[in-house]
What does this fold into?
Amino acid sequence: MLIDVHAHLTDPAFSDLPEVIRRAKAAGVAAVVTSITDPADLPKAKSIIEQYGGYVFLTVGLDPALLSEEKLSEFRSALKASPIVGVGEVGLDHFYVRDAPLMEVQERHFRECIRDAISMDKPLVIHSRSAGRKALEVLYSEGAERVLMHAFDGKVGDALAAAKKGYFFSIPTSVVHSDQKQKLARLLPIESLMLETDSPVLSPVRGERNEPANLIHSARKVAEIKRIPLEKVVEATSANALSFYRITLKFTSSW
It folds into this structure.
């Protein structure tokens, strides 16, 4: 029972979504958490979770590069407009945003997102590209507790410190070829890990579209790195995901 804790099923790359869902189920994926990063995608996301209720779950986020006050307001409205299991992905991106004044706006928006999640009692899914330590510092200062660091690209030492505070880290399918993700998987305890595809990106095969059915590659690589049975990886990461998102699975053969 694999759970893909972070994907983007509203992406235009998934024009064949019914087939993508069928392949995921056939590959042993019991649930997919899809995330939007632009409030404009909410209608499409709501349609997906209505069609695949109990299998696809939704988190609403805000791309850290969308820095307008209008987008922030739309994001906050979107949080209340649909059943969600989490807030995210939200966070910092110092790869695309490097101008100091814009970085300040980005941090302010991030803090507001964190506060919204805490007030709603929802977990946070964090984007922290080239800003891992800074994102963690902001989360700590805001008192965030239910946190998933998605595809974390920061230092393992910072990850280990966050794991001790109860933060989780999702290992993407790119772990197959990423030395940094392999190091993360090796040194973090299995109790702190979940699995994600981030599809359609971070494919286990460079240059190919990623999809939830590929999640098994993350599980197998983590099992290989940690030298533990695959079943233990699946059991532990799925239990972490269900508890973190507070979701209940519903099985149906109607799709």
